[in-house]
């Protein structure tokens, strides 16, 4: 219990920081509005085609039951990231919110009072193939004796908790369902499989003044752009590493520190250069991986940007995740929370690493998640200082979390994709 509560601390800060950023962005509202106008003409004909009707999906579902595709290498040659959301309340959700011992209130939207629960019933359907059905037992067998570690920010923690919920029904009833924290590391031991599933908090990958998993409500982010060892030494013994790091870089200005925190000859330089500082960090990260990763042992994944839905310039009214109960139905929708320049920086860092002999799987979940404006906690989140009813009634959007995802929900689909890689390629 204690550990679980501890696990939730970080998010309150994250939300506030994110909100600052969104406010800053509102200066560009006019520009986005123009772009939205131009593009909406384009999309008019595409309405509704990203999502199929229920009947269709139930037929689809019936077909899947007849011929389960548990292990099929062709899944990996298929583009799992292009497809559509299909309503399927027979198979989804894959677990119940209230039955997951690992659930934390940050993501427990139903417990927090959300009554429209349709967000739990969508299945991600790739266009050219079917995702294998998530089988917790098969997954745990696959990682027997191994260590799987998520590394990054609270979106990665969202996915970590989702994965624990997905496997829980495959654990012995008597085995402890506990996450133990040690500094930045949150660890769950699946003892009967001798497997470890963990999450390591380092939202900027390199050292920064936001490295405390609880206390990182810091206006001026300071990063040591070439210093990663302090965190990375905790990653070397993992067999599967799943990184993410986008959100925290979107800050318009940050301070770069040359030297170490508190030393006399340290140089602090406040910079904009959003893209360059991200590239420099990815470079530090890549160099570390190239030297320290055992290519035979460790399989590495990198999650693409998880989109947020604070501003709706590019979909129609209402312009916010608050009170949204349906996905976006415009085919090829891209949200304004999707910084393609930053994504390209990450993609080219991964390509570079591949040229240097280190293959990293890029799980390109941005676009598929972009459709899901309905799936954020909004006001059904955890509050560090809960607003009173009047505050909430007058300004629900101001109190909404449009960054993280309710569970069961979108991160389950990310994990189904991760599952298909792990089950087919390890
Ligand atoms: C794998 O899937 C493809 C198409 O999805 C199918 O044609 C093929 O027969 C499958 N192979 C196996 C071994 O199930
Ligand atoms: C699934 O959805 C359909 C249509 O909305 C509804 O008729 C049915 O009762 C639902 N089934 C379950 C198990 O919720
Ligand atoms: C899940 O995987 C286990 C171990 O591979 C297997 O025994 C079991 O039949 C699978 N369950 C389903 C529903 O496919
Ligand atoms: C558990 O896994 C570790 C590697 O992670 C291995 O060193 C150890 O021998 C395993 N223990 C058992 C009992 O299999
Ligand atoms: C890399 O990992 C493999 C498989 O676990 C192991 O056999 C090998 O000794 C490791 N190499 C180094 C240099 O540690
Ligand atoms: C929420 O959305 C529904 C329609 O989907 C609408 O009737 C209702 O007024 C909205 N509530 C608020 C508080 O915006
Ligand atoms: C990621 O997916 C998007 C949308 O499907 C696509 O446009 C983009 O090219 C993909 N990126 C990579 C590196 O595959």
UniProtKB/TrEMBL annotation:
Coiled coil: none annotated. Residues 131-420 form the Trichome birefringence-like C-terminal domain. It is found in: Membrane. The keyword Transmembrane applies. Pfam families: PC-Esterase, PMR5N. One of its GO terms (molecular function) is O-acetyltransferase activity. Residues 77-130 form the Trichome birefringence-like N-terminal domain. Keywords: Membrane, Signal-anchor, Transmembrane, Transmembrane helix. The keyword Cell division does not apply. Signal peptide: none annotated. It is a single-pass membrane protein. The chain crosses the membrane at residues 28-46. InterPro entries: TBL, TBL_C, TBL_N. It comes from the Eukaryota. GO terms for cellular component: Golgi apparatus; membrane. Belongs to the PC-esterase family. TBL subfamily. This is Uncharacterized protein. It comes from Handroanthus impetiginosus.
